[in-house]
Automatic annotation (TrEMBL):
Keyword tRNA processing: no
Gene: cysS
Any one GO cellular component localisation term in the record: cytosol
GO biological process: cysteinyl-tRNA aminoacylation
Assembly and interaction partners: Monomer.
The EC number(s) this enzyme carries: 6.1.1.16
Residues the entry annotates as binding Zn(2+): 29, 211, 236, 240
Cofactors named for this entry: Zn(2+)
Protein's name according to its UniProt entry: Cysteine--tRNA ligase
Length: 492
């Protein structure tokens, strides 16, 4: 099955296939590591993770490259203010990013490319552009892309820049240039600023040249897909196209994917609004990483997503429902045989799930048949109309679901422990909810002992003690579920 994805460049749904018939070559803009990633950043990264997983599920292998921007104006400024080299300044944020990346269960790209490790490739690209007459050196030693050399500029964002005059800004920098429309490729060194001695002079790369150089280094001069947040479409991605295609005279990327950012309670997320959240902020409030993952991908990537805590609570309930059902199936005890009704329900759910993913990565439509199958199967199990072969068929559907959404296995304890360790180290324990602190103080062994004591209390008809234990556990975020098969417990 071929996945059809909206192509920003063509303005239509296009089949997403490898040009060489092998792995789909895909470049995704990664983080700029001057601070901790916020949930808007991670919505983009998660949607790209969903895409690569969906492609693999549908039979298309992926060669995924993601960059790390570890040098830019903001990083240089912040490092200087902190009185440290940029490498020392950025490394903790790089480490934190990959911790959060792992907490949200994202698959690591096949290639991670750090900007500071690819300076020679950037310099070579500037030299190539200079030879084409598309780059020039300013009096201060900086190099610029001559925008008028690329008449197709604006073809991605569909902006008409033909009437733009000198003095209008399409890029922000502090260096002199021939035209205000031109953008920086290489910025001449300033006193005390991080820089490199190169064949084009001492300085540092402009932001846009970084992605072009790294994408072509690992994927070739022309590749299948370029992805990123919608805020990068202009001018960053437009500039990438201009400089890359002027250097190679080939189409840079055949397909462009842009993920819409999110709102928080209907407003733009910002620190000044008091609605700015990192992953760590949410973990310290007691939310599970798996629920955050599910919430951030619940709305398709091309739709505006309004993040709310009610929505996060709904995602938490959805994860619990999925896991409870999964455990019920794995517990077994089903009679031999099969039900034609349940076999058809499983087949239909699997087909509709895959079709929704193939239709522009529609995560909302993909979830719907899975939860409908859960409802129908639970009813059938309760009525004794679900058999061993049906359970196996349904588990296969859940395996498909989890290959992309990845929330069934409970691996939430470690992200929470890491967030608490970070909060303690950073002096932010005041942000941790009392319930989360209480829950972390209770080990799995301690829970099992209390569950056993409660069972014993119920056998001796000491219901007051049994209720007291249930309430104590609930206060510490542990939910008990009594069933005919015994008592199950889970952390909130």
């Amino acid at each position: 099955m071929t996945l059809r994805l909206f192509n920003t460049l063509t303005g239509q749904l296009d089949p997403l296939t490898p040009a060489d018939g092998m792995a789909l070559r895909m470049y995704a803009c990664g983080p700029t590591v001057y601070d901790y990633g916020h949930i808007g950043n991670f919505r983009t990264f998660l949607q790209i993770d969903i895409l690569r997983r969906a492609l693999q599920l549908l039979g298309t292998p992926v060669r995924h490259v993601m960059n790390i921007t570890d040098v830019d104006d903001k990083i240089i400024r912040n490092a200087a203010q902190a009185g440290m080299p940029i490498g020392d300044y950025t490394q903790p944020y790089i480490d934190a990013f990959f911790e959060d990346f792992e907490s949200l269960r994202m698959e690591r790209p096949e290639q991670i490319a750090r900007a500071t490790e690819h300076i020679p490739q950037m310099v070579a690209l500037v030299e190539k552009l200079a030879a084409e007459g598309a780059a020039y050196k300013a009096e201060d030693g900086s190099w610029y892309f001559r925008l008028k050399s690329f008449p197709e500029y604006g073809k991605l964002s569909k902006k008409d820049l033909s009437g733009m005059e000198d003095g209008a800004r399409v890029d922000v920098d502090e260096y002199e240039k021939d035209s205000a429309r031109d953008f920086a490729l290489w910025k001449a060194a300033k006193p005390g600023e991080t820089s490199w001695e190169t064949a084009i002079g001492r300085g540092r790369p402009g932001w846009h040249i970084e992605c072009s150089a790294m994408a072509m280094e690992y994927l070739g001069e022309s590749f299948d897909l370029h992805a990123g947040g919608e805020d990068l479409m202009f001018p960053h991605h437009e500039n990438e196209i201009a400089q890359s295609e002027m250097a190679t005279h080939k189409q840079f990327a055949r397909h462009w994917m842009h993920v819409r950012f999110l709102l928080v309670d209907g407003r733009k997320m910002s620190k000044s609004e008091g609605n700015f959240y990192t992953l760590r902020d949410l973990l310290l409030k007691g939310y599970k990483a798996s629920a955050i993952r599910l919430a951030l991908v619940s709305v398709p990537y091309r739709h505006q997503f309004n993040f709310t805590f009610d929505g996060l609570a709904e995602a938490t309930s959805a994860v619990d429902r999925l896991r409870t059902f999964h455990e019920r199936l794995k517990a077994g005890g089903f009679a031999p045989g099969e039900s034609s009704q349940m076999q058809e329900a499983a087949r239909k759910a699997k087909a509709e799930y895959r079709e929704a993913l193939a239709d522009d990565l529609n995560t909302a439509e993909a979830r719907a048949p899975i939860f409908e199958l859960i409802r129908a199967a639970n009813t059938a199990i309760d009525q004794g109309e679900c058999f061993a072969a049906d359970s196996e068929a349904i588990l296969e559907v859940l395996k498909d679901f989890d290959a992309v959404f990845d929330v069934l296995e409970d691996r939430d304890a470690e992200p929470t422990r890491r967030a608490l360790a970070w909060a303690e180290k950073s002096g932010r324990m005041n942000e941790v909810t009392p319930e989360l602190i209480a829950a972390q103080s209770l080990t799995d062994e301690g829970i099992e002992m209390l569950v056993a004591e409660r069972s014993a209390a119920k056998k001796t008809r000491n219901f007051a003690r049994a209720d007291q234990i249930r309430n104590e556990l609930a206060e510490k975020g542990v939910i008990l579920e009594d069933s005919k098969d015994g008592v199950r417990w889970k952390r909130k």
